[in-house]
Design a protein that fits this description.
The protein is α+β, with helices and mostly antiparallel strands. Helix content is about 40%, strand content about 25%. α2 runs antiparallel to α7. InterPro entries: Acyl_CoA_acyltransferase (IPR016181), BioF2-like_GNAT_dom (IPR038740), PEP-CTERM_FemAB-rel (IPR017469).
Amino acid sequence: MGQAVTPFITLMDLSDPAQAGAVDAYVMAHADGTPFHRPAWLLAVQDGTANAALLLAAVGHSGGISGLLPLHHVRSRLFGQALVSTAFAVDGGLLADNDRVAAALVSAAEHLAHDRGGLSLELRGGPCPGPTWEQRADQHVGFVRPIAADDDAELLAVPRKHRAELRKALANPALAIDIGRTRRHLRDHYRVYATSVRNLGTPVFPARLFRAVLDRFGEDADILIVRDGDRPVSAVLTLYHNGRVMPYWGGGLAEARRLRSNELMYYRLMGHGRARGMTMFDFGRSKVGSGQAAWKKSFGFEPRPLVYHEWAPDGARRDVNPHSEKYQRRIALWKRLPLPVANLVGPLIARGLG
């Protein structure tokens, strides 16, 4: 038998349509591929936050791809720098055909981190990169379950207590669903989302990031808005990937709790996904022990730990742990900011969180 050939690792040129197309085809065909491995995500984040996209690929003699490690070089005066797979994502990490390819990609990433000034590496998901990497499985949980066969079955899949609240929203004739990708959808979504995350103590992302995601993903992304009359009260930007509905950036105004418009939003999104041929609903991640995690569980979703991996040449890593004391102090301060100030300053801070 011949000796195994070490994979050739290269940085792909995502500005080249042929290379970007080959990467996208590989991700879409891979069982573990996510939207956050796709060139659309890498380029949207680069467009919207100025964090450079770097895509390591294992390429064979025939030119075929056998593995990928997408990265963003995230820079922040407050949080430091890191190579992240991938920035602003809940997943990412290694995507490879076998362990040998994965090891070659990890080695290349570590060398890249050294070459860029001794940066730390953060991989969100994927297989463990190696014994020198630290594993984190205590910070975030994810929520996924199948989409029911029809609206009635979906309603019955919601636990009784939460179902009663959802019925109140369904019976409210003033609440209407609006789905689209227009400038108005983007504007209304941003207003709702910015208010919602400020109230949670989180800086809002730049508006151009949301525009870039819609532009880059095309029909694989849209916005659903719940309107109380003409006024948007809940909104979510959703990604669609290989049969999965993935509500990603969502929130509601203060009156959303009274109107139960968030419940209505996600219930209608399940139906919208079903109509698009989707079979799974991925509710995204939440912090362990958070009210958001409890809310998703009350909607009929069971949490599962999300495993992330970190490495640094000198052992020093960024402090972006949502449970750290320093991070919690920042959250408490942010909640007290007036909304116009938060919306002005927030994007400058948030683009460095990654």
